[in-house]
Amino acid sequence: MGRDTLMTDQLDLFNNNKSIKLGDENKLCIKCNNVKPITSFTANWHRADGSTSRGNKCKECTTSESYILRKLKESTPPPPDNYCCPICNISLEGLKNKIDADNKAYNRGVWVLDHDHETKKFRGWLCNKCNSALGWLNDDINYVRRALNYLEN
Question: Are strands 26-28 and 52-58 parallel, antiparallel or unpaired?
């Protein structure tokens, strides 16, 4: 095999454009916006039919976020005993006494560390329910304003 043949064979490798098709074997990470194999996503739960539901963030992004949260928790003192959630104004006692029908709203602890997902800076301590509400509104002030306008009208 001559040098010209070897070069042609090597260049042919670059001509084979491989596209990743989104399907059962690949998934788009909502954090890094990369298409990755389905095995790069953590299995959240198993359905009755035997199939598996996967998270929307790849394991790498999930690990990175966990590290950031752990560092924020280590560097941020917990709220004082008389602390109230700045959104719903519920106290520690109120949270302990409030029983949710399915007990899911308070199963992650009393206070949740809220942080800016863009800057990674600590914003404050919230109850789990209020933190989840902000998450469902994508921490977007425009969504919050529209929700407020909706409730006022």
Answer: unpaired
Helices (H), 37-85: 59-75
Query: Residue type at 123?
Result: R
- Asked whether 111 and 67 are in contact (CB, 8 A), the reply is no
Alpha-carbon gap, residue 68 to 147, rounded angstroms? 30
Structure-token pair, residue 116? 């800016």
Provide Rg for the chain, Cα atoms.
23
pLDDT for residue 4? 55
Q: Which residues contact 28 (CB under 8 A, 6 or more apart)?
A: 22, 34, 35, 36
Terminal C-alpha separation, the chain: 79
Q: How far apart are CA 118 and CA 96, in angstroms?
A: 32
Greater pLDDT, 45 or 29:
29
